From TrEMBL:
This is Cytochrome c oxidase subunit. Keywords: Disulfide bond, Mitochondrion. It comes from Mauremys mutica (yellowpond turtle). PANTHER family: CYTOCHROME C OXIDASE SUBUNIT 6B. Belongs to the cytochrome c oxidase subunit 6B.
């Protein structure tokens, strides 16, 4: 499985179509992938497992989200005021 994830990461160009978010506005898709990345990292770290499988979510949210949003969310997570459940 790790090989297939690594192959997907190597061939990654931009965020693929996600049927959960069929509309042009990809704001929700951006938000969900940001949350999924940090949830994945937290879960894998708790298990003591490798977190490279979480990099897919990071690549998707960095492709979709404006940098200013990501920076603001990172600051809020560091301050403990982030509104999402991670």
């Amino acid at each position: 499985m790790a090989d297939s994830i690594q192959a997907k990461l190597d061939n990654y160009k931009t965020a693929p179509f996600d049927s959960r978010f069929p509309n042009q506005n990809q704001t929700r898709n951006c938000w969900q992938n940001y949350l999924d990345f940090h949830r994945c990292e937290k879960a894998m770290a708790a298990k003591g497992a490798d977190t490279t499988c979480c990099q897919w979510y990071r690549r998707v949210y960095t492709s979709l989200c404006p940098i200013s949003w990501v920076n603001a969310w990172d600051e809020r997570r560091a301050e403990g005021t982030f509104p999402g459940k991670i």
